[in-house]
Amino acid sequence: MAHKASDRILDLHNFGEFGGVNPSISDSSTYTFISAKTMFDTFEGNTEGCYLYSRHSSPSNLYLGEAMAALEGTDSANVTASGMGAITAVIMQLCDAGDHIVSSRTIYGGTYAFLKNFIKKYNVTTSFVDITDLQAVEDAVKDGTKMIYCESVSNPLLEIADIKGLTRIADKYGIPLVVDNTFSPLSIAPAKLGAHIVVHSLTKFINGTSDCVAGAVCGSKDFCLALKDVTSGAGMLLGSTLDSIRAASILKNMRTLHIRMQKHSYNAQFLSERFEEDGLRVVYPGLVSHPGHELMKSQMVAEYGFGGIMTIDVGSLEKANALMELMQKENLGYLAVSLGFYKTLFSAPGTSTSSEIPEEEQETMGLSDGLIRFSIGLDDDIQRTYDIMKSCMYQLGILTGDEVVL
Ligand code: PLP
Fold first, then answer.
1. Does domain 5-254 bear CATH number 3.40.640.10?
2. At a CB cut-off of 8 Å and minimum separation 6, what does 357 contact?
3. Residues near 332 by beta carbon (within 8 Å), at least 6 away in sequence
4. 175-186: per-residue pLDDT in tens?
5. Mean pLDDT over residues 118-147, rounded?
6. For a pocket test of ligand 1, which of 87, 201, 211, 353 has the largest count of ligand atoms closer than 8 A to its C-beta?
7. pLDDT, tens only, 161-173
8. Choice among 2-11, 19-28, 36-45, 67-76 with the minimum mean pLDDT
9. In the 8-state DSSP scheme, what is residue 132?
10. Which residue has the least CA distance to atom 15 on ligand 1?
11. Domain covering 257-404 assigned CATH 3.90.1150.10 in the classification
């Protein structure tokens, strides 16, 4: 088996029905059986390789699942109709009424809202902690804690989780560490560092074309099968099923993920270094000034870099909005949420993707109004991009002369 995740993905080959170089798309919701006995056995989960109904599994979804397992180095992976479809299925599979979760407090706003507001309907409570403080994480574990949850690189504050350290705590208490690796595919391989379950929003870098939403759960064969169980699986019963046509297109895009990640990271590293030199408040894990820089270095695959996401705090929401509008006008990118597109995308998380997090909590976690999150695109001439971005900042008085006005 190839040592590199990118090669493991490229090594997969499933020919199409007529010898096509891509696998055929399974354009069916249901499947016939020659014998009634095989249908019964399939319902019981006893027949490998038989398809029952596309909410349970389909060839196209299994191919994409294989690629996701190859990416993360797990035994198996299930794909879902969105990242939230993956995250919510995992949480509901692991927790019963009355259980407890320890979660990083800086996570994607939708996940935060699910843990804080939605799951409490089932009397499941969450302690939100500073994930960079391992003692605080361990102190929050109590009777009834069923999982530790974090993002390897957090949205939007770009905190770095110490996956090995968190695994040690999870193992000590016999609970799984669930890691959302959406921001750092290929750069960080959480399962290789010990995490038990890895979830993804495929919507972002992995698909890379901003044309669909999708997700995945990567883990042990037993856990992935349990999610699909026809009588008790949260994946099967909550019904967040990815369409086969989308699964096929995401699989094709995954084959260029390694090239794209290198370019996203190169460009983000370039811009973050320049803007930091200019005196702006830049956060990017590839900067020596980032508190998680050394940790990320110690747990990443160097050639894919520190990822495509950086933030700049321009001081106020007004300035952030004006800058984003001007950058869009200058065709530097789009004022849009999400990430991993060929074009740079920017948004102010406090009023968009993290708006589910109450204001006072945003303040405690250091999420300020003037923060802009950039998902840096695949621009070939990044110096030119820098020059135009800088001129936008001068026009708005965010940069003045040699001084920075914030
Ligand atoms: N996880 C992270 C880190 C995200 O940024 C997002 C979406 O922005 C999600 C999960 C949710 O993914 P989806 O929008 O595909 O449901």
1. yes
2. 109, 112, 113, 365, 367
3. 344, 385, 388, 389, 392
4. 999 999 999 999
5. 97
6. 201
7. 999 999 999 999 9
8. 36-45
9. T
10. 83
11. yes
